[in-house]
């Protein structure tokens, strides 16, 4: 808030730094990289679009796993690219032959959200390393929710960049920093992978001055956000235990939401509607393997209590 007030309106008369040098330097320092390995973007979604434009010939196939982030198919369609969709295993892990199948299909980009949405499942770094080694195309690791991963898991996909020049890591300020309205994110990769994103396909001034400044401050004040991540993890554990006691079956989650299979005596759409009537909003996906579940965002303790007492009445 203070950072926002400290921006001089007169500063907005001039163009911003074209490549967001300050933010790239801050992100590089945080991740132990150089600024040449960082591209700053107007929200993570822009990086997804840039990756498609930059690394996929028009009409060439793009790989995703199923289910996954709804924007991936949209981007593929805009690009005229067929989508190669491979279903996740029942426990939401990657099929062993994922790399081989993607290679055979000739995909030029594989987009993986990790930790996974909507299940919250985390794929470990050694599995990702094996996949990156197997693929000859770009592997985009969409880490939109990575800030909520338990530190004890010691998850560090950015470490893959040093060894794998085809790995592009996406980070956003929308989830972990509660700055979705700002539109800010960045991509991390080997210098040669990042270079065309930075200097070829990106709009010259893709990130405005306010977003550059506030995102940089958000990184500098990361310990404040980290306190929120800690609370989310603790509430995530409590919510999962309480939901289980009510007969739900929440998948183990490393994100700020739980995908919970509803008890057999209940139905997802009915619960969605009844919760909404009580002022509690959750997500329901009318899609294969998700129809028997609700995706519940971890809220404040009071919000979670309200959800739980509504569910106690309903199931
Ligand atoms: C939120 C999200 C993004 C990026 O969101 P932005 O607001 O554009 O930064 C990317 N991937 C997934 C899976 C997301 O949920």
In short:
This protein is of the alpha/beta class.
Set out the fold topology:
Blueprint: H1 2-5, H2 21-31, E1 38-41, H3 44-55, E2 62-66, H4 71-78, E3 83-87, H5 98-105, E4 109-113, H6 125-134, E5 138-142, E6 167-172, E7 185-188, H7 191-201, H8 209-220, H9 222-245, E8 249-250, E9 257-261, H10 268-277, E10 293-297, H11 301-314
Parallel strand pairs: 2-3, 2-4, 4-5, 5-6
Antiparallel strand pairs: 1-7, 6-7, 8-9, 9-10
The structure holds pyridoxal-5'-phosphate (PLP).
Residues 43-45, 69, 113, 117, 142, 144, 172, 174-175, 180, 185 line the site of pyridoxal-5'-phosphate.
Bound molecules: pyridoxal-5'-phosphate
Number of strand elements: 10
* Biggest sheet architecture: 7 strands, mixed
Uncertain regions: pLDDT < 50 for 5+ in a row?
A: none
Task: Enumerate how many helices there are, as a single number.
Answer: 11
Series of H and E elements: HHEHEHEHEHEEEHHHEEHEH
Give the integer mean of the pLDDT values.
97
| Strand order across the largest sheet | 1-7-6-5-4-2-3
Range of strand content: 5-15%
Describe this structure in words.
It is built from eleven helices and ten strands. The strands form two sheets. Strands 1-7-6-5-4-2-3 form a seven-stranded mixed beta sheet, sandwiched between helices. A three-stranded antiparallel beta sheet has the order 8-9-10. The model has no long low-confidence stretch (mean pLDDT 97). The protein has helices spanning 2-5, 21-31, 44-55, 71-78, 98-105, 125-134, 191-201, 209-220, 222-245, 268-277, 301-314, and strands at 38-41, 62-66, 83-87, 109-113, 138-142, 167-172, 185-188, 249-250, 257-261, 293-297. The protein is globular and about 55 Å long. Helix 4 links the parallel strand 2 (62-66) and strand 3. It has 315 residues and is an alpha/beta fold. The site of pyridoxal-5'-phosphate has 13 residues, from helix 3.
């Amino acid at each position: 808030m203070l950072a926002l007030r400290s921006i001089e309106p007169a500063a907005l008369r001039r163009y911003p730094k074209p490549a967001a040098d300050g933010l790239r330097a801050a992100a590089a320092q945080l991740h132990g990289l150089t600024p040449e390995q960082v591209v700053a973007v107007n929200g993570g979604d822009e990086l997804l679009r840039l990756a498609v434009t930059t690394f996929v010939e028009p009409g060439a196939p793009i790989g995703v796993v199923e289910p996954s982030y709804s924007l991936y198919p949209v981007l593929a369609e805009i690009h005229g690219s067929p989508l190669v969709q491979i279903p996740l295993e029942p426990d939401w892990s990657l099929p062993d032959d994922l790399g081989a199948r993607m290679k055979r299909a000739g995909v030029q980009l594989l987009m993986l959200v990790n930790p996974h949405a909507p299940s919250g499942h985390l794929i470990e770094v050694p599995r990702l390393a094996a996949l990156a080694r197997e693929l000859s195309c770009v592997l985009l690791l969409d880490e939109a929710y990575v800030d909520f991963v338990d530190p004890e898991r010691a998850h560090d996909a950015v470490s893959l960049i040093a060894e794998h020049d085809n790995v592009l890591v996406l980070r956003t300020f929308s989830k972990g920093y509660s700055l979705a309205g700002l539109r800010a994110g960045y991509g991390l990769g080997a210098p040669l992978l990042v270079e065309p994103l930075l200097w070829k396909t990106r709009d010259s001034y893709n990130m405005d001055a306010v977003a550059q400044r506030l995102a940089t401050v958000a990184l500098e004040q990361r310990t404040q956000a980290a306190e929120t991540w800690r609370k989310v993890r603790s509430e995530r554990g409590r919510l999962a235990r309480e939901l289980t006691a009510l007969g739900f079956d929440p998948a183990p989650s490393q994100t700020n939401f739980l995908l919970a299979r509803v008890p057999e005596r209940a139905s997802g759409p009915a619960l969605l509607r009844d919760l909404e009537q009580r002022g509690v909003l959750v997500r329901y996906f009318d899609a294969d393997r998700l129809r028997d579940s609700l995706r519940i965002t971890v809220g404040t303790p009071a919000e979670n209590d309200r959800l739980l007492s509504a569910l106690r009445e309903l199931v």
